[in-house]
């Protein structure tokens, strides 16, 4: 399970680096049709906008993949939740005995 999530995160992270760089290189080396007709200033602006849009597309795709994950597959660790709740209670001013009482219950 964790390996699949790590793989998806790694792929999305690499795409967020590769896609904009590939787009900028394609614009700078006139690999896209019609780019040679643009003024240099316009070409810089268009290539930047398209690169930013490509990163946003990758982010939307990654969010879509995350939302497709089954929710019943992930169950929180009860020990972690207990310590987290005790930590929140302790920082809220209920005293230092909250974490100690959790340890006593175990």
Please provide the ordered H/E string of secondary-structure elements.
Answer: HHHH
Report the β-strand fraction as a percent range: under 5%
Instruction: Kindly state the number of beta strands.
Output: 0
State the separation between the terminal residues, measured CA to CA: 28 Å
Radius of gyration: 24 Å
Number of domains: 2
- Summed up, the helix count is 4
Average the pLDDT over all residues and give the rounded result: 82
Helix content: over 70%
Structural class: mainly alpha
Shape: elongated
Model regions low in confidence, pLDDT < 50 over at least 5 residues? none
Main sheet record: none
Give structural attributes.
elongated; 106 residues; single chain; mainly alpha
Quick gist of this model?
With 106 residues, this protein is mainly alpha-helical. Helix content is 77%, strand content 0%.
